[in-house]
Amino acid sequence: MAEAMVRGILAAGLTTAEQITIAEPMTARQEHLTKQYGLACTQDPAVLCQKSEVLILAVKPQAAAAVLAPYRLFVGERHLVLSIMAGITLRALADAFTAPVRLIRVMPNTPALVLAGASAFSPNGQATAHDREIAAALFSAVGTCVEVPEHLLDAVTGLSGSGPGYVFAFIEAMIDAGVLAGLPRPVAEQLTVQTVLGSARLAQESGEHPAILRDKVTSPGGTTIAGLQVLEKGALRGVIMDAVAAAAERSRVLGE
Predict the structure, then answer these.
(1) Which residue, 37, 84, 109, 162, could crosslink 247 as a Cys pair with Cβ 3.0–4.6 Å?
(2) What CA–CA distance (Å, rounded) separates 50 from 61?
(3) What whole-number distance in Å separates Cα of residue 207 and Cα of residue 204?
(4) In this structure, which long-range contacts are made by residues 113-117, counting pairs with CB atoms below 8 Å and at least 24 apart in sequence?
(5) What's the pTM?
(6) Which residue in 101, 110, 75 sits closest to 1, CA to CA?
(7) Is 160 within 8 Å of 120 (Cβ atoms)?
(8) Distance between CA atoms of 73 and 185, rounded to whole angstroms?
(9) Which helix (H) or strand (E) is 143 found in, with range?
(10) Residue 160, Cβ neighbours under 10 Å: how many?
């Protein structure tokens, strides 16, 4: 996710590679980031915090305590800390530092890599209006961004944070279905990806409810309604709702 953000932010021209420093413990990853993007890398918390006023925490939530401990004494009031760790609350983040810190929790998703991400953020009480503008600018540069109350971020995680995984699983199933129906796999892949992309774009640009768009492609006694009947028998909508709910609950558990 962090690399997706770097690529998106640089592609959007929001900042330059010279203004980004990465704290990366793995030598191979350091070499990749330096070679691919021209980024500076460090493992020294003091150096990173001295060079930076905006810090983005992009580690697995299970590793949060171990990763943040070395930064405890170096992060202070001059820093704006943005966290994209699923489930880790603003309160837990505040407790990780010795000084009052301006904090913003953000839940982005991986389509930020192609400037098509969907992000939501929530600030703590110390964060200023300018801090919220910075967060909105950073994540709007790689897609769309909205501000929500913190109690809704677990739901955001289950929906848009984890959502690309559901969509990719659907795309894979559609491709396999095309192959089963007799299409060469490359043809099935091309048609499936464009169908999903075009449908999403139509939903976005038309402004019409998805149910109306579905009705427009569903002729009486036609092929689409035959396929939709199978999806209804398989409880597609219920399964998707359960998947989002499960991911949201997992986000909540990770924050405990």
Answers:
(1) 162
(2) 24
(3) 6
(4) 113/3, 113/4, 113/7, 113/8, 113/142, 114/8, 115/8, 115/11, 115/12, 115/141, 115/142, 115/143, 116/142, 116/143, 117/4, 117/8, 117/142, 117/143, 117/144
(5) 0.86
(6) 110
(7) yes
(8) 55
(9) strand 143-147
(10) 21
Range 186-210 average pLDDT? 97
Task: Please check whether residue 57 is in contact with residue 107, taking contact to mean a CB–CB distance below 8 angstroms.
Answer: no
**Residues 222-229, mean pLDDT to the nearest whole number:** 96
Nearest to 107 by CA among 64, 161, 163: 161
| Tokens encoding 30 | 């350091």
> What per-residue string of b and e applies to 88-124 under the rule 16 or more CB within 10 Å gives b?
bbbebbbebbeeebbbbbbbbbbbbbeeebbbbbbbb
Q: In terms of C-beta density within 10 A (0-12 exposed, 13-18 middle, 19 or more buried), how is residue 162 classed? A: buried
Nearest to 196 by CA among 212, 175, 217, 221: 175
pLDDT in tens, 42-99: 888 999 999 899 999 998 888 888 889 999 889 988 999 999 988 889 999 999 998 8
Enter the tokens of residue 173. Answer: 């199933």
Q: Are 78 and 107 in contact (CB under 8 A)?
A: no
* Angle, in degrees to the nearest 10, between helices 27-37 and 2-11: 10
Residue type, 189: E
Handedness of CA 215, 221, 222, 223 (dihedral sign): positive
Tokens describing residue 127? 């964060």
Long-range CB pairs of 51-55 (<8 Å, 24+ gap) are: 51/21, 52/21, 52/79, 53/78, 53/79, 53/80, 54/79, 54/80, 54/82, 54/134, 55/79, 55/80, 55/81, 55/82
Cα separation, 176 vs 202, in Å, equals 24
Residue 43's identity, in one-letter code, is: Q
